[in-house]
Amino acid sequence: MKPAPFRYQRTTTVDETVAALAGGRARVLAGGQSLVAELCARTTSAEVLVDIAGVAELDHVAVDADVVRIGALRRIAALEDDAELAAALPALVECAGRIAHPAVRNRGTIGGNVAHADPASGVPPVLLAHDGEVVLTGPGGARVVGADAFFTGLRTTACGPDELLTELRFRRPGPRGGAAFHEVSRRARGWGLAGACAVVELDEGGRIAELRIGLLGLAPTAVRAERAEGAAVGRAPEAEAIAALAADAVAVADLDDIPGDVHASPALRRNLGRVAVRRALAEAVRRAQGS
């Protein structure tokens, strides 16, 4: 199919883009790997398509001591090949390498992935587990929204119709911290049926001082496993404890709330989620102990 008629506008600055979004009837085109398919299927429409591929100020990575700031236009493939980023945020680089195929990663952007808020996307739970923040720029200037408040439902976010997602901020694991991402799919780099990102901080005695877990595929949007996070504090990160925390993590929703489709039933997704959490947490602990 062909998309419904729209007007095309290309911008080169954030201010120009925000002005183009005024009125709320425009859609932002970054990599277009999801939006173009939806336009052609006519499951969405736009009066104006604002192409931001030329907004160079949105393509950046800054690795600071405590926070990593990534511009919304950074390509997924560029994240996958960034050695400095791999040292600072290994879970994000692991996630980037699992997104679709090279042709998609060469065009897709991290900002577009987060703004699309698909429940099967890997970047949103990584952002949640790293206590992340989203910078939104609109007519009134920039505002910062915590990742916990940004994802509001199935493919819906706190980004207003006249706002542009400009930057993502990830808190780095501490000196005794580790992070890992694990996803289960039917085929290599296919849509994730369930997955998890775990970020763990150990105390001087080697026990869990802090744990953050982001989940995909177990709710209409990416969610934190807060119940398991709270139960983890003070526990020794042994295999039995990790398995118990994984079981606790997938109790974030009743079985009826977990999505089910032709690819996986709610019960299967719950089990796969438990496996993903256990593997991600075990690897995060191993990295924390090694650091």
What can you tell me about this protein's structure?
- This protein has 291 residues and is α+β, with helices and mostly antiparallel strands.
- 34% of the residues lie in helices and 26% in strands.
- The strands form four sheets. It has a five-stranded antiparallel beta sheet with strand order 4-5-10-6-7. The chain has a four-stranded antiparallel beta sheet with strand order 11-12-13-14, sandwiched between helices. A three-stranded parallel beta sheet has the order 1-3-2, with no helix packed on it.
- Helix 10 (226-232) runs antiparallel to helix 11 and helix 11 (239-249) packs across helix 12 (266-290).
- The longest helix is centred in the C-terminal third of the chain and has 25 residues, at 266-290.
- The N and C termini lie far apart (52 Å).
Please indicate the percent range of residues in DSSP E strands (runs of 2 or more). 25-35%
Number of strands: 14
Strand order of the largest sheet: 4-5-10-6-7
Largest sheet: 5 strands, antiparallel
Q: In DSSP terms, counting alpha (H) and pi (I) runs of 4 or more, how many helices? A: 12
Radius of gyration based on Cα positions? 19 Å
- Helical residue percent? 25-40%
The ordered H/E elements are EHEHEEEHHHHHHEEHEEEEEEEHHH
Low-confidence stretches: none
Structural class: alpha+beta
Tell me the overall shape. Answer: globular
In round numbers, the mean pLDDT is 93
* Intertermini distance: 52 Å
